[in-house]
Predict the structure.
Amino acid sequence: MTKAVVLLSGGMDSATCLAIARAEGLECFALSFDYGQKHDAELAAAAAVAAAIGVSAHRVLRMDLGAIGGSALTDDSISVPESAGDDIPVTYVPARNTVFLAFALGWAEVLDADMVFVGVNAVDYSGYPDCRPEYIAAFQRVADLATKRSVEGRPIRIRTPLIDLSKGEIVRRGIDLGVDYALTVSCYQADGDGRACGVCDACRLRRAGFEEAACADPTRYRPR
Amino acid sequence: MTKAVVLLSGGMDSATCLAIARAEGLECFALSFDYGQKHDAELAAAAAVAAAIGVSAHRVLRMDLGAIGGSALTDDSISVPESAGDDIPVTYVPARNTVFLAFALGWAEVLDADMVFVGVNAVDYSGYPDCRPEYIAAFQRVADLATKRSVEGRPIRIRTPLIDLSKGEIVRRGIDLGVDYALTVSCYQADGDGRACGVCDACRLRRAGFEEAACADPTRYRPR
């Protein structure tokens, strides 16, 4: 059985990505990060999603991304904004996807997995530079050179099945594959129970996805 | 003053790299990792080197690279070999330089630093794939696309001043710049006091460097 490492945040995109990898018949190894994010309800969601969709292992890697600061998602002195702007938002975590992909690449090599799945999306996204197709292509080149496997002519492939889909298309794809989005948490400031704020950029994109897909939104919002 | 993040392991190469960056008049921010390596005497060495050469800050980022296993440097079930072979050795840590460079890139962005220095060397090295010039070029492309700074037309430059030097040339360069190699620890299995085994691949390369440079070797070896 071909193995794949799947980056799993606990949000809707990575859950859909995992379901796609499973539907391809891959043996999946889910990788999440405890990186000092304020919204650690997503880690409980990741565990629930991994159990529901089915993985051979789910690892949560702890690291202190907050120690280098610089993002509203890890730095207590920066607030999560409640509306979208034109620029790259303060919720951008410097080099986050590069860090995540690097760890996934390392684990894939240890497992002798052929692929790494990451649920980045360049359509309905927050404008983070490390979600763009050209960024992923550049990281693929790193993967083609960085590992012992690549020296042996068996580089690890970076798969991004959601990259060209709209948020509504992602929702429809996931529902076709049986994803229970009630288990997922997207909100940047979810409470300890996983209930969403409804106003941050992640909540806004998620809600629009269910609307576009004409599906009921199972998100639990907290009272404001 | 132009800022640079310098990856600092506590070994001779990264110490030399830091001295080169300082000699260029850069304000340096040293970054080390506590990644579950067996040879954590190198972290004490990194702190001593940072203090001796002079940095504005030295951060030690903790992460659980051992959780994904696969290397003699982090996995208790794999022994550090005492002689060099022809292949990539078991001391290779999967995706280590990619992980380290990713964090350095993130911190550089937060600091608004223009450069990241890494002491990789492709001449007298252990054959790790992520020390080759083509690997560094690929990571530079990632850096050119991954960050908010790069979107603003100010990408962070990855500097590798040692990449084409022999170990003896590195030693001579460092001594010219006043590096005290007695502070550095290269050994993969140094004891708690920082004394080297004298037989691992890192010890072998280091000793050959002092011989080539015709310099006294200040390394403290432990009795065998």
Q: What stands out?
A: Residues 129 and 135 of chain B are 7 Å apart (CA to CA). The beta strands of chain B are 3-7, 27-34, 57-62, 115-117, 157-159. Chain B has a mean pLDDT of 88.
